[in-house]
From TrEMBL, chains A, B:
Pathway(s) served: Lipid metabolism; phospholipid metabolism
Catalysed transformations (reactions): a fatty acyl-[ACP] + phosphate = an acyl phosphate + holo-[ACP]
One of the GO biological process terms: fatty acid biosynthetic process
Keywords: Acyltransferase, Cytoplasm, Lipid biosynthesis, Lipid metabolism, Phospholipid biosynthesis, Phospholipid metabolism, Transferase
SUPFAM superfamilies documented for this protein: Isocitrate/Isopropylmalate dehydrogenase-like
GO CC entries: cytoplasm
EC number(s) on file: 2.3.1.274
Assembly notes: Homodimer. Probably interacts with PlsY.
Protein name: Phosphate acyltransferase
Highest taxon above the source species: Bacteria
Similarity annotation: Belongs to the PlsX family.
Physiological role: Catalyzes the reversible formation of acyl-phosphate (acyl-PO(4)) from acyl-[acyl-carrier-protein] (acyl-ACP). This enzyme utilizes acyl-ACP as fatty acyl donor, but not acyl-CoA.
């Protein structure tokens, strides 16, 4: 018999909690026998949602947590004071080894703080990065770090490259993933102080497939699989990706509605366009893992619907079964 | 009689030089009586291009320069050793006051180095930033700095904000332009060390209309007019803008060609879509000024066609007539 992977799901986190979160959890256990979901949150609210669905009861557990961490709360304070929040209760389950992983669509800051403070780092890991997958022309790339550690040092970036490579190879399934460092030019002598110091470390590292500097312009075309950068730059890349895409799609739609001829054309192209744009979407891979923790913490979009929650839960199974943390411990 | 504004145009710079550059220069003098263009470059090549057009001879001068700085040359070395290149000869004309401004589509690095070393900084300006206009939902925003100075200090960013505001108000015509600093969250306590130190300086500065932190996600919707950031981040923003837009447009086109129904629809929407996407393009405003120099240096895209060269030349007239450098000297 396969071992069950136990995934805590923060039932109160995110804009669509608890309804979409609970639905995602139910969909996950209905899809796979090897998952046990532990929902943390306010019992009456979560139970009311659970009652809407049919699912194998033994695969879902509910742990009551009376408090909720709001999106706008200062993270450190929230994690410290709201000891009975759905997030903190969930993190503690992972810390005590009663669960393998946690998925939350709640406050990014609180997830990052909780991951480091409550779950804790693997031995040897200096800074655990947040590593979302971003869509590219023909697939996805992993962006590390993307918000966990501002003002990082070269040794941190080297660890990001190693952990990112392990994740892409064993969770996403890209053999010998290409690692690039975000830079303002392709030449080795270009860059700011951090990049110039990090470049030789990456170049000398035998564990990774380093291909050199990557300009931001080339990221969307999928020029590498693991994109290494410090958190401020990573955050700008992630957010600008969303911003440019949504403004541009808005512009296209505006053009389609500008006259009758275009409106007729719009009706004809709608199905194909929808399929195409869907392929430029990374949510089917799940959320962003916080790498290098004792256990796995996955942050999904605040606006996650059931589908993304379900995919994030399944991602945890892959992470556990592929023994990613063991691989990280060996290679860090 | 109006005073002539003298603009040096680097006839050998860029992917489409000298043909498109010379055409742009001719178009500029045919459009306006108040411009004199000084073309620098290899005389036989430039003359051959000039012979194709009719234009007022007294508005165009040709200054021979035997050398050309290639795109891939190390900038500092190129500017130092190629004393008779079209760029260096042009920069020296500005330095000696024989011209008011210079436009080049050549190597960005060489233009930045030449601007600082040959043309020189205005008194009080610590670092001259490169400040391109980027398209937004309903207009443009100025991105300062975008590649000139990596590892900047808070005092530099304060000057970028001041110079950028003057430029947006008097060249682009935005009254009381809103200034934002790129950050990884909207709250004042967020950010890396540089942003945290710069924030209070911007907040206390009476000369600018500071609106606080701006997340990269909101840049494309035009949330502020002057976007302040250090050069590495600015470069990532500029390049990623281009990368995401081109990948996404490629995806849309791919969708339009996927079946017969969509192909018919594509024919119908083509004109409207073209107009819409054209509105998401900032080249009509000219190139990116290097602010804070004794004289004006404008860098246009390496791939510039005649239209962008022409617009960049006209932008120099506006810059001169609005006495931007005098305003910068007063307020820095």
């Amino acid at each position: 018999m396969q071992t069950l992977v136990k995934v805590v799901v923060d039932a109160m986190g995110g804009d669509n909690a608890p309804a979409e979160v609970v639905k995602g959890a139910v969909d996950a256990v209905n899809a796979r026998k090897d998952i046990k979901v532990i929902l943390t949150g306010q019992k009456p609210l979560v139970e009311r949602e659970l009652q809407k669905y049919t699912f194998p009861k033994e695969q879902v557990e509910l742990v009551h947590a009376s408090e909720v961490i709001e999106m706008a709360e200062p993270p450190v304070n929230a994690v410290r004071t709201k000891r009975d929040s759905s997030l903190v209760v969930g993190m503690n389950l992972v810390r005590r080894g009663e669960a393998d992983a946690l998925v939350s669509a709640g406050s990014t800051g609180a997830v990052l703080v909780g991951g480091q403070v409550l779950v804790g780092r693997l031995k040897g890991v200096e800074r655990p990065p947040l590593a979302p997958l971003i869509p590219t022309k023909n697939g996805v790339s992993l962006l590390v770090d993307c918000g966990a550690n501002v003002d990082a040092r070269p040794s941190h970036l080297l660890q990001f490259a190693k952990m990112g490579s392990i994740y892409m190879e064993h969770v996403v399934g890209i053999k010998n993933p290409r690692v690039g460092i975000v830079n303002i030019g392709a030449e080795e002598e270009k860059g700011n102080a951090l990049v110039k110091e990090t470049f030789p470390l990456l170049k000398e590292c035998g564990d990774i497939n380093f291909i050199g500097s990557v300009e931001a312009r080339d990221i969307p075309s999928g020029v590498c699989d693991v994109i290494v950068c410090e958190a401020f730059v990573g955050n700008v890349i992630l957010k600008l990706y969303e911003g440019v895409a949504s403004t541009l799609i808005g512009k296209v739609k505006e053009g389609l509605m500008s006259d009758l001829r275009s409106k007729v054309g719009a009706l004809l192209i709608k199905p194909a366009l929808k399929t195409t744009l869907k392929s430029f979407d990374s949510s089917k891979y799940g959320g962003a893992p916080l790498l290098g923790l004792k256990g796995l913490v996955v942050k999904t979009h605040g606006s996650s619907k059931a589908g993304e929650i379900k995919n994030s839960i399944i991602q945890c199974v892959q992470f556990k079964q592929q023994e990613i943390n063991e691989k990280i411990k060996e290679r860090i």
